[in-house]
Amino acid sequence: MSKRDYYEVLGVARDASEEDLKKAYRRCAMKHHPDRNPGDAAAEAAFKECKEAYEVLSDGAKRRAYDAHGHAAFEHGMGGGGPGGPDMGDIFGDIFGNIFGGGGARAARRGADVGYVMELDLEEAVAGIEKRIEIPTLVACDPCKGTGSADGRVETCGTCGGRGNVRMQRGIFAMQQACPACGGRGQTIRNPCTECHGAGRVEEEKVLSVKIPAGVDNGDRIRLTGEGEAGPPGTPPGDLYVEVRVREHDIFQRDGDDLHCEVPIRISQAALGDTVRVPTLKGEAEIRIPAETQTGKLFRLRGKGVKSVRSRSEGDLYCRVVVETPVNLTPEQRELLEKFEATFIGEEARKHSPKSATFLDGVKGFWDRMTS
Questions:
Q1: Is 114-246 in the same CATH topology as 6-96?
Q2: Is 193 marked within a binding site?
Q3: 114-246 falls under which CATH superfamily?
Q4: How far apart, in Å, are the Cα atoms of 242 and each of 123, 132, 278?
Q5: 294 DSSP 8-state letter
Q6: Rounded to an integer, what distance in angstroms lies between the CA atom of residue 271 and that of residue 258?
């Protein structure tokens, strides 16, 4: 029987993103996983099919080959969705770990992952920075070197044979659960460590130095492999995920690789034109304000934005001018403005304030229609 199209297997479009592929694979795997469908040969075959499809499409090189040649790209020893694909454990870890009762050796293969939120100023996020953080976590017990045994002697559990789980049969239902004798560790200790009481781990404030790459943005996560919680005796530690939160800035707002800011200008500058200096993250720049500039006009400064961790070039800075109404006028200034305002009469007013004139015409027409 011919193989189904990998995109059809996962139910995604051919231009699906990496995240779309991962979500689709999770749905497919959840539906057909053998632990959810014990004894169902069709479900097992479907599970293998979606696993093979994901292994190919999640690998950039294999996906390009598949898009170009289909399944023929992996015939005659050219590779394919078999060994050597992406590590599926990362996906299964957060899907099946707590659903199918695999609480034994399978669920205890590593320590728990740890999350940490790091707040940064915009300047720090754009330029990159190295920061020290303190994390309350579980670390390997030093006196017993993480074994949990005071004398270093660890024995294989006689109940589960070191597997860490036992299978219980009740009628037609079979259940897998953590071994009650060893608590899922697969090992037993005769002489527990007095410091960790046989757990092999103790609570501690862990101090780390974290390098934040230049260009990170809100919601970006940095993975530090092996810096999470220490695992049970004989298992590796989990990972640390540092999530970036960028504080609001007094001047700039970030939108991807671009920055935005408001630049207040005086009425005289807007009417007559001027050159003003504006701040950037790397110093100052100049923008030329043409005569008769209105509030809201955007000025684009190329390359004055942000170079994110995902791009090769810097974004732009967009300056939006705001014509500011003067306050705290002196008597002389007020008199000058009154004389200026007195010149806006009749057609002169329409000539110098076309938007106001258009608005007033619209209002008059509206009232005429309402009263007719």
A1: no
A2: yes
A3: Heat shock protein DnaJ, cysteine-rich domain (2.10.230.10)
A4: 18, 12, 34
A5: P
A6: 29
179 with 159: CB under 8 angstroms?
yes
Is 196 labeled as ligand-binding? yes
Tokens of 42: 């069709």
The CATH label, of 3.30.460.80, 1.10.287.110, 3.40.640.10, 1.20.1250.20, for the domain at 6-96 is: 1.10.287.110
Backbone angles phi, psi at 340, to 5 degrees: -65, -45
Tokens of 184: 């899922």
How far is it, in rounded angstroms, from Cα 51 to Cα 37? Answer: 16
Q: Domain coordinates of the chain in residue numbers?
A: 6-96, 114-246, 253-325, 337-372
261 annotated binding-site participant: no
pTM of the model: 0.58
pLDDT digits 0-9 by tens, 281-339:
989 999 999 999 999 999 999 999 999 988 889 999 999 999 999 999 999 999 998 99
Edge-to-edge strands, sheet with 221-224: 114-120, 240-246, 221-224
Q: Please, are residues 120 and 246 in contact by the beta-carbon 8 Å criterion?
A: yes
Q: What is the CATH number of domain 253-325?
A: 2.60.260.20
28 belongs to an annotated ligand binding site: no
* 160 annotated as ligand-binding: yes
The answer to whether 323 and 274 have CB atoms below 8 angstroms apart is no
